[in-house]
Each structure stands twice: as C-alpha cells, then as structure tokens.
Amino acid sequence: MWNLKGIEINNLYKVDHFIEKTDFCEIYTGTDITSSKIINLSIYKDSEIADDDLDEDGNLKEIQFLEIGIDAFPKLVTFGDFNNNSDKYRYIATEHIAGESVSDRIKRNGPLDEYDTLKIALKLCEVGEKLHNRSKPVLINGLSLENIMIDMSEDDEKIRFRNLINMRLLTDNFKYTYLDGLNINHIAPEVLNNTFSPKSDQYNIGALTYQMHTGMLPFFNDDSLDIKDSDNEKELKEFRNDDFKLSDEINIDLKTVLEKTLSSDPNNRYDSLSELSSYLNKERIVIGGEENTIKKNEPVIKRGNGFADVAGMEDLKNELKSKIIDKIRRPEHWKKYGNPIPNGALLYGPPGCGKTFIAKKFCEEAGLNFKLIKPSDVSSSYVRGGVEKIRKLFDEAEINAPSIICFDEADAIMPDRELTQSQHTKAEVNEYLTQMDKSSERGIFVIVLSNIPHIIDEAIVRSGRCDIHVYIPEPDKIARKSLFELFLKNRYTDSNIDIDKLSSLTENYTASDIELVVNNASHTAGVREVKISTEILIETIDNQRTSLTPEQLKKYQDFKKKFEGDKKDNNNSRNMIGFNRN
Asked: Directed axis angle between helix 198-214 and helix 273-285, to 10°?
C-alpha cells in the first residue's frame, strides 16, 4: 500500500478510507474539502502507469470513457495529479458508490441466484451494446467481478462499473499483456492472439455470468499462469485449447446459452450482445408460462454459511437443527428410536421478518438439494396443466433426493378448498395433498412459507404433511443489531454509530422496517450533506413507526396459539409440534 490515507490532494480532497488495491491502482473514499461531499478516488502511481494507458494528451484513457456518461459509469468529478513524499501520482475523482462489489457480495452470501445473476448479465450486455454501437466503437476488453458494483444507495439496487482501465477504442492497438485485473479464465481464446472484438466482450460477459451463478470459472483457475508475462504465451494457449465443462447445477436452458457464449470459435457465438441479451432475458422472464418446465427450477445444493448468517434467534435455530436437520443427516440413528425424519414444516409469521431468508439458510445448513417455488412457477392456463407441473416437481425432487422443496407464499399456492370456487385450484390442492403425504419416505422434505397461514388448506398443515409448525417472530435485539450493521455497511457514516441504542429503540421492527429506517436516514444525511449519525437515525426512528401494529402482533400470537394447540384458547386445535418462545 502507498499509505495515502489522511493526505490532502491539491487542497481539493482529503483521502479518507482505503477500500482496496487492484493490479493498477489504489481506491479510497475521500471528502471534497469545499462541499464536504463524499467521493471515490482512484489513485495511480505515475511511475507504474503503462504507456498504453495514456491517450495522446498524456491523460489516463479511462477518463475519456467516463466522459461518455453511460448511466452505469460513475459520474466523473475531476482528475489531475499530485505529489506525495517525492512520488508523483494521478487521481480520478468520481461520485461515491454506496455499496459493494459483486465479488464481495458473493464472498458474503455465496453465489447469486439465477434471477440476480441474469439481472447483472443483462446490464453488462446493455452497456456493452451501447459502447459497440458508438460512432467510434468502444470495447470493454475485460471486466472482473471486482469491477462490477452493486449500488445500494436507493431502494432498488443498481449495477455500476468502476475502474474502466481496460476499455479501448476498437481501432486501438491493444495486446493481451496490457490487461489489468484479470486472469486467464476471463478472456476469450482469440485474445491470446491480440484479437479484440465485440465477440471477445461477449465471451467475458459469459464467463462472469457463470462465475456469479456458480462461484466458479468455466476453466480450471491456474493462478500461476500470469497473462501479463509474455513468456507464458505458449502455455496459456495450450491451456485455453482444453475443453470446458459447465456445471450440471445450472438449469439446462441457461447452460445452453452460456455454452454458445463461451464457444472457442467467435463465429459460433451470438451475433451481438443484443442477441445474447434476448436469450438471457427469455430465461429471466419466462416464469409460470407454458414454456417454463420443471427444468427452470432444477435443484441446486445451496452454498453459503447457513445459520451463521442469521444473527440472534438462537431458540429458533436450535429447534430447526435438533428437530429437522439432525434427523435428515442421521436417519439411521433416529430410526432406532422410532423417530423418523419429519415430513415438512410450516414457517409462518408477520411479513418482513425473514421467513424466506431463514428457509434458504436452513437449506444451506442442511446441505441438501433445494428448490424455491413461487406461485407463478406452478401456475398454468391449461386444464390440469398445474397438476402436471406439481407432479413433475415432486418427481424431479425424488430423483435428486434427498431434496427440499420450499413453497413461498403458500397461501396462494395451497388455499383452503372451501374458500375457492375454482375447480382447477381444488384439483391442484388435491395433488399437493397426494404428493406431500409421507413425502419424507421418498427423500423429500417440504417447507411451506406464509404470512397468512389460516387460509392455507387445513389438510396441508396437518401431521403427515407439515409435522412441524414454526413461528418466525420479528427480529430480536441481537438480530436487529446485525441488521443495522448490514444496512449501514459501506455508507457515509460517523465512526461511532451507537448500534446497541438503535436496536433498543426498534423493538417489534421487522427487517424491512430497519432497512427503510437506514435508507430514510441516509437520504436525510445526504440532503444535509453530513455523515449519517446516531442522532439522524434516532430522528428517523421517531418519525417512522414499525409496520406491525399491536393488532397484527396479537393476530399472529393467536395463530401461534392455534398451531401450538393451546387448548385454553382453542379446545379443538391439535397438539402440534411447535416452538415455545415464551
């Protein structure tokens, strides 16, 4: 590191916090001395800048591409040079991106699901197509996941780029040894012959898409092969002539698209990023229609940290481990005691309290094949079309057993047959009853998620189908502390935020309530052009009530009593297995 933290640049900016070091620069947050606004600073040591990184005026080529003004690029504030301890540096100041890189997101949460992967891939295609269609076409020439940022400054996350150091005009004389921040797995084979084109950009996007979704690159990652060392040229080319095999864990349609995108022959790839985008977008939007077969939801073994990512809620995690996960992992042990694997579990509670998140972490903890099913995944406009989808769903799960099927918004998927006039819906619920009956004997564990469990068909939640009923309450204090830390991460905050006090003031707040508090406080701080402080957060909490009213909380407590078989309140309710959280 160059230890630049705390210095002032030409009386314009103060260098604040080190973010990361890349192959070619160091990245910091900084403060505009005049306006006190936070900015991002990319700083380059002049002696380490390659000639090919400079334009004819001697400026970093990255500057001309930032000036294009594409929405995914950070807004250029200014650029220049400065001296520090006899060393000369260059800097580029851009607007601050409050968020994290895709690489950091994957390190924190594991590989992205298909929807989020395709959202980013489509944005890469959109930006690449705009660059390729300019009067003077521009090539991306190689991105890594460290270059792609998830901007978390607004409610809807946006995809942004940083460090455009590899971008070049199509007409520039560029060589693969000039590439910075990449390894051999990110680049198309023809690049090793110094052939750069829109189709080599397409290959790079395909490799990144695969990496985001699986956590792996499409080739063996041999870090010893330095692409910047021309002495490795022969070995690099031999390495890239090897065939690749994509994981069977991604669905077959996306796999087919990526195989074409990653073809070693550029002529076999898509004609343009626009064409690639149309195929990727088809994978993203065809949900629930007749083109959507069960292969859209092929089971995958969930990667990640499991319950380690769930702060607090210790009673809940321990119950799930002891009553379900341990029995799934040690069936022979529990069989000796006549205590078999449970058939399924109902997870219910107020909206915004993390039922889907906890279900995903449960699957990671169990380490089993996993399918998350939403209402649109099993709907059909054809007579008995939905029934066939349901049957195929369970057949596939049995083939890949042991498996977990998780039904989100189950009240819409399995409604009470007495409350619907639709014969199609009644037939689908009947099929669920048939398939779920003793499904554990087929190696299938079912999780049913709902905010309004009382409208799920009563036969679904009985023993033999959903043996265990789990109330997911609003986050406890430890969980609220973790949520504040998560949502405040990478924002422009004071160094002494009192997380403990904030968590004490937000009793009965849901996870989504806390996220909204942080977003609103961030907006207030931005308007005032100051750092996010404890005082601003408390002010926001005072003006923003929890979304859960006392009446709603009482309603969910009543649900809990019903499902736990509280005979005092409901003499007819069954004594179901549940959680005692008194």
From this structure: 30
